[in-house]
Amino acid sequence: MASFNRVLLIGNLTKDPELRYTPSGTAVANLRLAVNSVFKTQAGERKEETCFVTVVVWGRQAETSNQYLKKGRPVFVEGRLITRSWETDGKTRSTMEVRADRVQFLGSPSGGRTEGPSAGSRDDEADAEAPSEAPSEAAADADVPF
Asked: Distance between CA 132 and CA 137 in Å, rounded?
């Protein structure tokens, strides 16, 4: 049986990122995200629900998120669901979180120019440089066969 674990979210941070380091020195940050959904009830009434999600970001992307993101900032997150369990006071507790593969910063930090990178990148691309120029529309249209 095939399985697929992919999560795509756009929401606003409910608090500043929480950055910490593992004993081996790897950065890890928790982002708390509020994701709103708007729908109509059977009676035609407009309703809005908010889902609060913890997003775990690792490595350089965690440090960048901590540096540039603040409470209220909109972000796009791509990742996968993970379940964590631990024991406290003799009881086993568990939680479901999103392990981010990519965090993209949306909007601007203060309504003006962006102070840092406008987007995070995948962990495996964190140190790669982005292309300095995008192809022109004319060049892109030239490849279209019709």
From this structure: 16
Confidence of residue 1 (pLDDT cuts 50, 70, 90): confident
Give, in words, the CATH class of 7-127: mainly beta
CA-to-CA dists, residue 143 to 44, 132, 135, angstroms: 46, 21, 12
What is the pTM for the complete model shown? 0.70
- Domain segments of the chain as ranges: 7-127
- State mean pLDDT over 86-98: 94
Q: Which helix (H) or strand (E) holds 45?
A: none
pLDDT band at 118 (very low <50, low <70, confident <90, very high): very low
**Exposed e or buried b per residue across 52-78, where buried means at least 16 C-beta atoms within 10 angstroms of its C-beta:** ebebbbbeebbbbbbebbeeebebebb
Q: How far apart are CA 58 and CA 100, in angstroms?
A: 8
Q: What CA–CA distance (Å, rounded) separates 116 from 100?
A: 20
